[in-house]
Specification:
By secondary structure, this protein is an alpha/beta fold. The chain is built from 25 helices and 31 strands. It has 4 domains: about 5-230, Rossmann fold (3-Layer(aba) Sandwich), CATH 3.40.50; about 235-440, P-loop containing nucleotide triphosphate hydrolases (Rossmann fold); about 455-470 and about 655-840, no CATH class; about 480-635, no CATH class.
């Protein structure tokens, strides 16, 4: 892969490969057709996940624990040719191994030469090409087979294992008549034409209709459990923007021109902020795009007026900057400007394009991370199409959260024909199961808040140094982590490398360890060599009636070809090429000339010894920790993509490790409540780390959270407070925890309070008014107790607060050993019992 997978993408790829293995076994051993689904929220990178899976299945992948299937072939089916073109382009860009020879679009002339789909290929097909009057489904003099016969030959033949991928699998599943849809025919087959697809892999944000179609299939298809991308991990990754800002007029009337000018201003504001970020962080410049969504039949007069407003507000707009993606696929002359037609998927890669005129044609099959402002003249009845378009605009241009300017982590949408009630329709569309609202915050009239000017830098530095203890990455590979760090430490593209010989030093550490383990386990290695080089054959003699007469065993030498295959597999199984590297090191250092197989057998035998691979991974983990500590100051001073890359290395820990809190420079926050016709302003509070020019910050707090903040602000020692983010990102103080089922989660405590000791030093408190009604309340409380045990000396207070039955606020002082013991030994039930016990105190 050209791209480094996010942890949730790697986890999803591993689980998809497991399902494919189950499905392949069902088909090869029982001839049972099967299906499963990948549920991936919009923007989470389903194509990246699929590309990793396809690469691993075709070529094998130690990183994803996948063996190659040399017969694998994929038929990628959608109902949108633009979506296919986009997917093919993403696969080509993202894969090291999939090129134009492997990625094939099935065109109308495909069946003039093809008799079956070939192994080792990904074929893209949109269902419009399978309509009755299309060449692919009709024989002719130069077309001896139909596409249905080509599919039948592929399924019934022995040269390829066919995997059917349904992209946007919720589409095309609806039964419109007694006759099956084209998609259903591909899946279920048709008697006398094509057999059912053996293995069906559906991909969608909403897969219920796909599941229903699989359940209704009358061919005994086995449905394996779905793979669901972890939404919280998508949120934490920063690949999708944090926030969608919805703006509409505050009063009745026609404000189209006013909001259109605001949309241009918002785009220019993004342009300026990206320019500042690029200069400060030594990054490539992002050139933001404004999308203007129009009614189905805009008049020439309206188009001229609209473009005139844009040009008057955006001075110096280039003559090629305005394009259209209308369904007519034609260039337009609007005033003095030629507005070219471009295909939606071409927008992202063309920096000249700054304004896109659209109707509904780009609601699917299009991703443009540069598109950061939407001005839509659609009305409330088009809430679905507006929400779909917003869904195509939420990817972060740099595929990561911007830590220094929170304005760059949001999408702005201006809707002149909406009121607050109508906005609720879009909000409901965006927050439906599987949609963006599960990942992105939908807010009304958000504002940007800078760091509170009344607080000195020491306060922010103090908060950033507090210990965050995030959950580990379940699929993290210490060796992959080490290789990523080595690449960063040896990078000299922007100045002298921090550690030019990092790779050699790491290799020397690991190879010395393996040499020592080989000497330590000499006897076990020798035994493993014998096991590799010989095979025990058992013979059983039976009577004609099946009774056992005698058994005997004999030892035979393993065929050299089998030894060669098995030892290569064992050596290659050590990730990131470490096994192959150690083999090369041993070959270089041996006195035996030319017998690599013998050395490889010894290396494989060593790697088979219990605990050796684990010891290598532990050594890699320690090497990473030591280097991160050694270069902590230098890493802190990195910027932009380099800083983000170091942060990813820090986050890729297989066990919990201590990190800090990365506070942003600016913070974007809502100023009004959403989904309420009267849209009341949120209350504001003094003393927050981020504030307006008056030192105030808006926050939506319940009554007892409000009481807590007002109480804390009134304390004589109070300096500042921070509303800890609810998402498990680097700007939050995180506490990873395991629940009763062994599943990892992340606790983000509500409030961090900074105070000043009598000696003038700053002090920190965790004040966490968490509800006791949550299913994981005890697991989170136990995690907070464990955190207090480990890091309590860094805080003056760590308090968990709940409202008692009499309405008073009670606290558990988790710096108290007896209270921690009571939490850990709690017998179950609602944890409210703890707040009512003698070990609690009144919060005041």
């Amino acid at each position: 892969m050209q791209y480094e997978l996010f942890d949730y993408q790697r986890e999803a790829a591993v689980e998809v490969l497991k399902r494919i293995g189950w499905c392949r076994d069902d088909w090869t051993t029982k001839h049972l057709p099967t299906s499963f689904a990948l549920s991936a929220v919009t923007g989470s990178g389903k194509t990246v996940i699929a590309t990793a899976v396809i690469e691993a299945l075709m070529y094998g992948s130690p990183d994803l624990d996948a063996e190659p299937d040399p017969k694998a072939t994929f038929l990628w089916v959608t109902d949108d040719p633009a979506l296919n073109r986009q997917t093919l382009g993403k696969m080509r860009a993202g894969s090291d191994l999939l090129d134009d020879r492997r990625l094939v679009t099935i065109e109308p002339d495909f069946t003039t030469t093809a008799t079956a789909l070939a192994a080792g290929h990904v074929y893209f097909l949109n269902i419009q090409k399978l309509a009755k009057n299309q060449p692919l489904v009709n024989r002719s003099e130069d077309r001896p087979l139909t596409i249905w016969e080509v599919l039948a030959n592929t399924i019934t033949g022995e040269r390829a294992d066919l995997y059917l991928v349904l992209d946007e699998a919720h589409r095309g599943m609806k039964q419109t008549s007694d006759r099956p849809t084209i998609v259903r025919r591909i899946i279920n087959g048709e008697k006398g034409s094509n057999p059912p697809a053996p293995i069906v892999w559906g991909i969608s944000a909403t897969i219920e209709r796909f599941h229903a179609a699989m359940a209704e299939a009358g061919n005994g298809r086995t449905r394996h459990p779905s793979v669901t991308v972890d939404i919280e991990k998508v949120r934490a990754s920063g690949i999708i923007k944090d926030q969608i800002d919805l703006d509409e007029p505050d009063e009745t009337g026609d404000f189209t021109n006013t909001l259109l000018r605001e949309a241009v201003d918002a785009t220019l504001d993004f342009q300026g902020r990206w320019a500042s970020y690029a200069e400060a962080e030594n990054e490539l410049l992002v050139r933001p795009v404004m999308v203007v969504q129009l009614a189905d039949k805009p008049s020439d007069t309206h188009l001229r007026q609209l473009v005139a407003v844009i040009e008057s507000q955006w001075s110096g707009l280039d003559k090629h900057a305005v394009v259209n993606v209308f369904g007519e696929h034609a260039d337009l002359v609007i005033g003095d400007r030629n507005v070219r037609y471009v295909s939606p998927e071409a927008i992202q890669g063309n920096d000249e394009i700054r304004v896109v005129l659209a109707k509904t044609a780009i609601s699917t099959g299009w991703d443009c991370p540069r598109a950061e402002v939407l001005y839509s003249e659609r009305t409330a009845k088009d809430a679905t199409s507006i929400a779909q378009l917003i869904g195509r605009m939420v990817r972060s241009p740099l595929a990561r959260r911007i830590p220094t300017d929170d304005a760059l982590n949001a999408v702005t949408c201006l809707l002149p024909h909406f009121d607050r009630v109508a906005l609720d329709k879009i909000t409901k569309e965006l927050t439906a199961p599987g949609e963006l609202g599960e990942v992105v915050d939908i807010v009304i009239n958000a504002r940007l808040f800078g760091r509170n000017p009344s607080l000195g830098d020491e306060v922010f530095e103090f908060v950033e140094a507090l210990p965050s203890f995030p959950q580990p990455d379940a699929l993290a590979s210490p060796l992959r982590r080490a290789k990523a760090l080595i690449q960063l430490l040896t990078d000299d593209s922007s100045g002298p490398a921090l550690m030019p010989d990092a790779g050699a030093k790491f290799d020397a550490t690991i190879y010395a360890l393996l040499d020592g383990l080989a000497a330590q386990h000499k006897q076990a290695v020798a035994e493993n060599v014998r096991n590799i080089e010989t095979v025990e054959i058992r013979r059983t003699s039976l009577t004609a009636g099946g009774e056992t007469l005698a058994t005997s065993t004999r030892t035979e030498e393993t065929a050299l070809a089998d030894i060669d295959h098995d030892t290569r597999k064992i050596v290659n199984s050590v990730k990131e090429g470490v096994g192959k590297g150690y083999l090369a090191y041993r070959v270089r250092g041996t006195d035996v000339d030319g017998d690599e197989l013998m050395i490889r057998t010894e290396v494989a035998a060593l790697l088979l010894v219990d605990g050796v691979t684990r010891a290598v991974e532990e050594a890699a983990e320690k090497w990473v920790q030591d280097r991160l500590s050694q270069f902590a100051v230098e890493i802190k001073n990195t910027t932009g993509a380099t800083k983000a890359a170091y942060m990813r290395v820090k986050e890729q820990a297989s066990k919990q490790e201590v990190t800090g809190v990365e506070l942003p420079t600016t913070l974007k926050a809502p100023t009004q409540e959403t989904n309420k016709p009267d849209a009341p302003n949120l209350p504001t509070f003094a003393g927050h780390l981020f504030s307006d020019e008056k030192g105030m910050f808006p926050a939506k707090l319940n009554d007892w959270e409000t009481t807590v903040i007002e109480t804390e602000v009134d304390r004589p020692s109070f300096v500042a407070w921070y509303r800890n983010p609810s998402r498990a990102g680097v700007s939050a103080l995180r506490i990873g925890y395991e629940d009763e089922a062994g599943k990892w989660g992340s606790l983000q405590v509500d409030f961090i309070v900074v105070s000043r000791r009598t000696d003038g030093q700053l002090a920190a408190s965790i004040v966490d008014p968490h509800g006791d009604y949550l299913a994981d309340a005890w697991a989170k409380l136990r995690a907070l107790a464990d955190y207090a045990e480990r890091f309590g000396d860094r805080f003056v207070r760590i308090e968990s607060i709940a409202k008692a039955s009499d309405g008073t606020l009670r606290k558990l002082d988790l710096l108290n050993n007896k209270v921690r013991h009571a939490v850990r030994t709690f017998g179950g039930g609602k944890v409210s019992v703890l707040y009512e016990s003698a070990g609690s105190e009144e919060y005041k």
